[in-house]
Amino acid sequence: MTKEAGFAELYTAHYRQVRGLCRQLLGSTDRAEDAAQEAFARAYRAFASYDPAQPFAGWVMSIARNYCMDLLRRRSKEVTLFGSEAEEAAAAEAPGVDGLGAALTQERATAVNAAVAKLPERYRVPLALAYYSDADYDDIAKTLGITRNHVGVLLCRAKQLLRQSLTETP
Amino acid sequence: MSCPSPITHSMYADGALSAREARALEQHAVTCTACRTRMESLGSESAVLRAALRFADDLAPIPRFSPPPSARDFVVLVASVVLIGAFSKAFWSTVAAAIPSELGWLDPLKSGTLFERAVEVMTFIVYEGTAMWTSAMNFIGAMLVIAFITWLAVSTVRRRAFAGVAVALLAVVVALPSVGHAFEIRRSETAVTVTADETINDTLLALGQTVEIDGTINGDLLAFGQEVTVRGNVTGNLVTGAQKVTIEGTVGGTVIGGAEDLSLANARIGRDFYGFANGVNIGPEANVAGNAMGFGETVDVDGRVGVDFRGFGARVSVSGAVEGDVEGYAGTIAVQPTARVGGNVTGHVDTAGDLSIAAGAVVGGIVNEQLVEREQRRNEYSTFNYYFGQVIRLGGAFVTGLLLLWLFPVLREASLPSAPAVLKSFGIGLAAAVTLPVAAVLFCITIVGIPLGVLTFLVGAIGLYFSKAVIGQIIGRGVLRNRPTPPHFAATLLLGLVIVIVAINLPWIGWLANLVLTLTGLGVIVSLILARVSRGSLA
């Protein structure tokens, strides 16, 4: 099998997953499509360095994640992309809507996605990393360049805001 | 133990607490119903959230993967260029084979006398002509130099894009010859003649060693040969190329002729005359009703010109009657004693005295000798009008740019982050600048396509007009990049436009800056439009 044919197969198998990550990270379907293409283009160029013993998904997802993070950093000129930990923590302590639990059913997936897309970047990005690419807190902290606790605070806030927006618009 | 914070709960649901912390929370939950409920709720929430985030992606369409260009693609590109070249060369040599061998000297790739003459004329114009000619020639020269770079740039664009360019080129190569109308064609290895008692009611293409037209042609005449003589009557236009062209008859329309020796003996020309030759001669009995323009080593006007006469050459001489103005760009310009000029005589010459008006010559207007040398040296940068003009230009560009950025906010975010991006945009811009007019012309040729053709022209013109605003905005943003708060787009636009205006007014390289900036801006606009169109929305 030629390199191209082999890659095309992997592309078809993983495109949606990569595009999904890009969409959650960038908050836009249009930009996600471009970013996914670019991520695969980068993967294609670096394919020689890919170790087939490793899962392809993890490899290409990390390429996509790095690329999206670059995009986000470039787009945002603010130094403190993820806000101050103390302020966020204070906001998180405030009483709010409790866990949605079973109320959050599969049927509401579209609404959840819309709500996620509307989240500010600083909450959306860690949320996507944690719940889409299944990264653990240490990974996220490293990717975003913030502390582990800060990640916990942002995720807590992200879920709070999500609940709020979902209970407001049933 | 008091109830843990929402953050602790959230982290527990994410499995991010340390083993000790998790155990403590679990122990607390044994006795605290509220916390137990909350933990269960958060746990199932996390699971549903994971599933929900992925939900939409299961339905997403998978676009075709286009691998980034590699060295192999470059080879494919070069091969396709060579193929297209070979194809067009084969095509044109088939056409050339249909043309008698006597016309071999017309082949522009063969360095014949006419070709050398043409180069000389061009060089002369570039060297001594007006600014308009200079910039036009510069543009063509730059196009040739840049063509190679473009192909490189285009190769960095997606395959789809350069396939488009290749197809466009192919279309041009194939379409150009088919543009022609139905001709009556007469060709012969020796002589083509239209005898005096003969009438042709059609456009005639005459090819032969000698072409002699004594009859009447109710249409255009295209005559090429070694020697072309028109003694008859052509009601339409005459386009001719030969070593020696003599026109003694009547031509109702315009005459365009290229030859080593081009003379209007006692010709009557209804409209304009354009002669390119070693020697252009409007004979004493000849009458050109419209304008006459001669490019050549020597240009002589002994007959009558109904409107203006312009001569470009080493020696320009007027001894006939010119009803309008005489303007010459030449080594020497002589207005002979027999000459009558209704308007002004203007000579662009190297040194004073090269424009001579003989005693006895009648000039209705004023005689003006302009020294080319001095004209070039005159410093335009020191005139008030120049700066005033630039300020007006800046103001106009700023206002239209503001409007554009206000209407299309997406343009405010356009950026060129790297050198390859600039090169890519430039390549796209150049491709668009080249293909848009061609596409427009092709559309216009098919009657149904005229509105489409006009639209294409308009899009191209608007794009070119706005491209400086777009590029100005990008430059302005680049300069003000490090500001703590992003500046308003009006500020970045103004700053960028000032830089652009200064750049395009630089001496010597201003035109190049203008070209590069305009085409790069056009490229940015075109790629934005393409990106939108490919997503099926222009919102």
Task: Summarize the structure in words.
The complex is a heterodimer of chains A (170) and B (539). Chain A has 170 residues and is mostly helical. Chain A has helices spanning 3-26, 29-45, 56-75, 85-93, 109-118, 121-131, 137-144, 148-168. Chain A is globular. Chain B has 539 residues and is α/β, with parallel strands linked by helices. In chain B, helix 2 (19-31) crosses helix 3 (33-55) and helix 4 (71-97) packs parallel to helix 7 (159-178). The longest helix of chain B is centred in the C-terminal third of the chain and has 30 residues, at 450-479. In chain B, 33% of the residues are buried. The model of chain B is unreliable at 99-120, 122-135, 171-182 and 374-378 (pLDDT under 50). At the A-B interface, helix 1, helix 2, helix 4, helix 5 and helix 6 of A face helix 1 and helix 3 of B.
